[in-house]
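Please, structure for the following, as C-alpha cells.
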Amino acid sequence: MKTCLVVDDSSVIRKVARRILEGLDFQITEAEDGQQALAQCQRQLPDAVLLDWNMPVMDGYEFLKALRRLPGGDAPKVVFCTTENDVVHIARALHAGANEYIMKPFDKDIVEAKFHEVGLI
C-alpha cells in the first residue's frame, strides 16, 4: 500500500484529504506544519505528500526545499494543495520540486486526477 503524508494546519482539510486518499488505497500520516512533516520524512519517506503552503512554524515551500535536500528526498511525489493560486506561487512551487498543484477547495475527482498524472495511481 502506498503512503501519503498530508501536511496542513487545518484539521478539517487533513480529515477530508485522509478520507479521499484512503478511498484511493493510500495509508495516511498527518502533520500540521512543515517542521512536523520534515521530522516524519527524516524517519521514513512517504510515496506522496499533499502539501499546504501557508502554515505556522515552517511553511510548505520551506518544507519542500528541505525535503528535496534529504537523502532520497527527491523520490516522494509532492502535490501542493493551497489557496495560493497565482502564477508566481505555482512557478516557485514547481521550481522547488513540486510535482503538481491543486487549488483549494478540492474534491475527490481533482485529487484522483492529479495523483494519476504524477503516476501514483
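The beta strands are 2-7, 26-31, 48-51, 77-82, 100-103. The chain has one domain: 2-117.
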